[in-house]
């Protein structure tokens, strides 16, 4: 693989951190956390309160789904990093075995 052991561990760390953060953000968006209302893609002017509530509900759900989808991508890259770590360890073991035979 093109990824060495240090790079693999770094990518794994970033992936784990990303999965945790984005999953929590997705949960907070699903629960309509008021602290995240500034991060919603809403227009500043609404014609009525009901329209604003509807737009906010749709925006909260959309952003939550995006967070969960991105967390899934980070999970996939984390699995790829684990695979790279295992391949690097297998290469090290085979190199050690071949050096011990000679």
UniProtKB/TrEMBL annotation:
Q: Does the keyword Nuclease apply?
A: no
Cell compartments where the protein resides: Membrane
Query: What protein is this chain from?
Result: Ribonuclease kappa
GO cellular component, as recorded: membrane
Keyword Transmembrane helix found: yes
- Family to which the UniProt record says this protein belongs: Belongs to the RNase K family.
The alphabetical list of record keywords is: Membrane, Transmembrane, Transmembrane helix
Please list every transmembrane segment annotated in the UniProt record, as residue ranges: 7-30, 58-86
Using the UniProt record, give the first listed, main subcellular location: membrane
Per its record, what are the GO molecular function terms?
RNA endonuclease activity
User: What membrane topology was assigned to this protein in its record?
Assistant: Multi-pass membrane protein
């Amino acid at each position: 693989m093109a990824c060495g052991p240090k790079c693999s561990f770094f990518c794994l760390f970033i992936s784990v951190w990303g999965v945790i953060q984005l999953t929590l953000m997705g949960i907070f968006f699903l629960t309509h956390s008021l602290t995240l209302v500034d991060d919603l893609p809403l227009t500043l002017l609404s014609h009525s309160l009901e329209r604003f509530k509807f737009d906010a509900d749709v925006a909260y759900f959309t952003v939550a789904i995006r967070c969960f989808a991105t967390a899934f991508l980070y999970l996939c890259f984390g699995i790829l990093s684990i695979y790279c770590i295992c391949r690097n360890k297998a290469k090290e073991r085979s190199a050690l075995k071949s050096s011990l035979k000679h």
